[in-house]
Amino acid sequence: MGFQLMVDGGADLPKEVIERFNVKIVPLNIHFKDEEYKAGEDLDINTFYKKLSETDELPKTSASSPNDFYKAFKEIDPDVPILMLALTKNLSATYQNAELGKEMLLDEEPERKIEIINTKTASCGVALLANEALKLKMNQVDFHEIVNRVKEYVEKTTTLFSLKTVENLIKGGRLDKMRGAIAKTLNIKLLMKASDEGTIEVTEKVRGEKKALRRLVEQIGEYSKSLEGKTIALAHSNCEEKAKKVLATIRDKYQPKEELLVEMGPLIATHGGEGGLVISFLEDE
């Protein structure tokens, strides 16, 4: 049975995957002072970085409304099941609003099949799960089996982050200015991880970007000895060449079967800042 795959603006998927499989995206909102944009629709990534460089205040982000999800779900053929992969519910109201939008539509059309999964990750972590779901779809696996398998993959997904700059964390109030100034002076880079609950935690503080990137690649081995037969997903924030070098190192060290390289959208880049990387893969059994 076929199905319609949907994600929200917290996911960063390769354009070719979106186009080939007609993935529907429910965009999140980016607020620059009094201006509101639908990320990816009326605010492309280049314009986003330009506006970001022109302000001292970090833009605010907000989840799509229940009505946004209701309208997006309603546009899909009623006979086609929907699989919605939502940004981790511990960092955004997106998942809850998607559930509300689903209930609004089911009140009208109770025969609909809509499954919403809290991915407990973001960015290329969602892309990784989407890729696994689409591979199952191509193998004509039953919809309900795909849902169950993706839920299992959620629990096995590891998502690691490396930030080049703490500037956006300071602007957003997530790091006080004094500690931020010390981090910048000492060239401290943060390595972070999506927790089992879907929050973001700092795992290490490393001095110098080369050491941080080397440690980022090393960390993969703490969760998966090899990536043979697996997919590695990597998202970058306006630093494609650096991302490709890191991906080449991962390829040599862990031999993944498949690679997904994507550019971060405005939502994740708002908090990560330029030069940031996100890596996602499935842990060993």
Radius of gyration from the alpha-carbon trace, in angstroms = 19 Å
Q: Treating each run of at least 4 consecutive H or I residues as one helix, how many helices? A: 11
The low-confidence runs, each spanning 5 or more residues with pLDDT under 50, are: none
Spatial strand sequence of the major β-sheet: 10-9-8-13-11-12
Instruction: Say how many strands there are.
Output: 13
Strand content: 15-25%
For the largest beta-sheet, the strand count, sense and barrel status come to: 6 strands, mixed
N to C succession of SSEs: EHEEEHEHEHEHHEHHEEHEHEHE
Q: How helical, in percent, are the residues?
A: 40-55%
Mean pLDDT: 89
Shape: globular
Describe it for me?
The chain has helices at residues 15-21, 45-53, 66-74, 94-108, 124-138, 143-156, 167-171, 177-185, 209-220, 240-254, 266-272; strands at 4-8, 24-26, 29-32, 35-38, 60-62, 82-86, 114-118, 157-163, 188-194, 200-207, 231-236, 258-263, 277-282. The strands form 3 sheets. The chain has a 6-stranded mixed sheet with strand order 10-9-8-13-11-12, with helices on both faces. β9 (188-194) and β10 form a beta hairpin. By secondary structure, it is an alpha/beta fold. It starts with a strand and ends with a strand.
Provide key terms for this protein:
285 residues, six-stranded mixed sheet, alpha/beta, 41% helix
Give a topology summary.
Blueprint: E1 4-8, H1 15-21, E2 24-26, E3 29-32, E4 35-38, H2 45-53, E5 60-62, H3 66-74, E6 82-86, H4 94-108, E7 114-118, H5 124-138, H6 143-156, E8 157-163, H7 167-171, H8 177-185, E9 188-194, E10 200-207, H9 209-220, E11 231-236, H10 240-254, E12 258-263, H11 266-272, E13 277-282
Helix pairs in contact: 3-4, 5-6
